[in-house]
Structure formats: C-alpha cells, structure tokens
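debug: dumping io for the single-chain case to check the tokenizer round-trip. Nothing else runs in this session.
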Amino acid sequence: MLQRLLIHKFGILPDDIQQRLQTATLAQLETWSLNILDASDLNSVFTD
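debug: decoded output
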C-alpha cells in the first residue's frame, strides 16, 4: 500500500527505493507511512 501511495504522490519510484520498501521492517513501513503525509519530496519520506 505504501508503494502505491508513493507512486501516486511522487511518480515512478527509483529502483533503490523499491528495494528499500521490499526489505523494510514493519516499524519502518509504519514510520514512512506517516511521513508521507507531510513529505514534500521522496527523500523526506525516508527520514527516521
């Protein structure tokens, strides 16, 4: 679901971001899912 939201907001995802999503822990996915609400760019989503 997070991947779909990221694509909707930011467009096609780079390979490294897709890999990061596939190997993420549940805690990371939860954090990133909240970060997407305020992120103005893709890199802002992945700050912990």
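debug: round-trip ok. The chain has four helices and no strands.
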